[in-house]
Amino acid sequence: MLKTVLFDLDGTLVEERAAAAAAVVEWAAEYGVTGPDVATRWRAVSEKHYRRFQRRELTFPEQRRRRVREFLAVDVSDAEADAMFEGYVWRYEAGWTVYADAVPGLRAVRAAGLRAVVLTNGNGDHQRMKLDRLGLTDEIDELISGDTLPVGKPDPRAFAHALERLAAESHDVVMVGDSLENDIRGAQSVGIPAVLVDRHDAQPGADVPRVRELTQVLDVVRR
After folding, report:
1. For the chain, how many structural domains are there in total?
2. pLDDT grade, residue 221 (50/70/90)?
3. pLDDT at 162 over 80
4. Using an 8 Å Cβ cutoff, are 195 and 176 in contact?
5. Average pLDDT of the chain?
6. Which domain holds residue 191?
7. Which of 142, 143, 161, 181 would be a feasible disulfide site paired with 117, CB 3.0-4.6 Å?
8. Which among 107, 90, 97 is positioned nearest to 9, based on CA atoms?
């Protein structure tokens, strides 16, 4: 019997990709890095080192420093890298927005008597600040953040840990997220049903239930 809906945070409840792109273009220009591919290169560098954090090969601060050094091609100390990254992160955080369907979707789940839990690879302090700043803290029942997981999504151990923490079986839970690899395949690997959030119909061939809006989740899982 369904008891809990697990929601991914970034890209599912919160739009952050556009925020990252706008922030890095402005930030990088301060260091003489410009061009039409700045945002794309930053995304690639960020994903490379963030995946190492997800595998627990780097700490959260270390992956940030590696991103600075590689992207800007600078040889700086940890303290200098931290200070440089702050110039990016405040711009990035200022650009966060909540998807229009996020709060209605969360409220629909809770109104149905289900728990709304966020499962994110992100750092706990950073994600709690994000939830607070965007007014989402009171819209969810619990946050399971990356620093409390043995490894990040899509590793099956991340989802197994979430089930243990919730004292739930796989059939008690459904995972909702925008990443076919991280959210959907990872959840399925431990038997958790999953729903792909595909707002722009970018993955019509995905062999999983899809929704364009979070308000459609309950309709899908109850079919």
Report:
1. 2
2. confident
3. yes
4. yes
5. 96
6. 4-15+97-221
7. 142
8. 97
Using CA atoms, how far apart are residues 102 and 31, in angstroms rounded to an integer? 36
Task: Kindly tell me if the per-residue pLDDT of 54 is higher than 90.
Answer: no
Same domain? 113 vs 85: no
Residues 193, 221: Cα–Cα separation, whole Å: 9
Same domain, 141 and 179: yes
**Quick one: tokens of 165?**
């923490």
Q: Are residues 83 and 184 in the same domain?
A: no
The domain boundary residue, chosen from 54, 77, 94: 94
The pTM of the full predicted model, rounded to 2 decimals, is 0.92
**71 and 101 both lie in a single domain:** no
Residue whose pair of structure tokens reads 């739930």 in the numeric block: 168
Query: CA dihedral in degrees (125, 130, 132, 135; nearest 10)?
Result: -160
